[in-house]
Design a protein that fits this description.
single chain; binds adenosine-5'-triphosphate; Rossmann fold; 5 helices; about 200 residues
Length: about 200
């Protein structure tokens, strides 16, 4: 899945409508401290359906809306659009008719978020599934925020393994294993009860 453009308006420090073209290959963002480099990564995470305000360095979701400066008043709305280039048809099959997919998230103060895919209103789940089916998303280890490398280096081996398992695409198997084990325990309990009933009847 290739991201080709990112549009922001009213998102954190990007108060004016801004469009960034993401070219093929490796993209680097350079600039002085505090110019908004991390805000760009957070915008990508947010439009993919990130719900935890903390991971966007805020205490509530409204904190992503431009909060105003000495010279400019605060905004009441923030919007981010991520344009996905689907010419290689790498998005899920239901988007096979689309060369480009535009995913938009908009938030208004105290009213929560609304999502659109190619102009149509959708649920947050639809957006999260679009990215999950393409093996990415707001929690993807491919999005490396500041300090994450240090955390990874200093992490306990078990925590580091969880990140590697996510990258290998096998973390979902743990959930299925837990479910299977719990069903097995339930079946064993039923068998024991059945044996008690059979013994009582004999
Ligand atoms: P560094 O290189 O120091 O890590 P950076 O380029 O990654 O910096 P960011 O952390 O992305 O910069 O941006 C920080 C700037 O964004 C700060 O100036 C902060 O005031 C501004 N900012 C964050 N949230 C908002 C908001 N809701 N409204 C207005 N400005 C905001």
């Amino acid at each position: 899945m290739r991201f080709s453009r990112l549009r922001l308006s009213g998102f954190k420090s990007f108060v004016d409508p801004t469009e960034l073209h993401i070219e093929r290959g490796l993209t680097g963002v350079v600039g002085p401290n505090g110019c908004g480099k991390s805000n760009l990564l957070e915008a990508i995470r947010w439009v993919m359906g990130e719900n935890r305000a903390k991971s966007l360095r805020g205490s509530g979701m409204d904190d992503v809306i431009f909060a105003g400066t000495d010279k400019r008043p605060a905004r009441n709305m923030a919007e981010v659009t991520l344009v996905i280039d689907n010419q290689d048809r790498s998005a899920p099959a239901e988007y096979n008719d689309e060369d480009f997919i535009e995913v938009t998230r908009r938030i208004e103060r105290e009213s929560g978020s609304a999502y659109r895919i190619n102009g149509k209103d959708v649920r947050q789940k639809d957006v999260q599934l679009l990215f999950a089916d393409a093996a990415t998303g707001a929690h993807s280890p491919a999005l490396v925020s500041q300090g994450r490398i240090g955390t990874l280096i200093n992490a306990k081996p078990q925590d580091r393994r969880a990140i590697l398992e996510e990258a290998a695409g096998i973390s979902g198997l743990h959930t299925r294993r837990k479910e299977a084990e719990s069903r097995l325990r339930g079946a064993e309990g039923n068998l024991t009860r059945l044996q008690d009933v059979i013994q009582a009847m004999e």
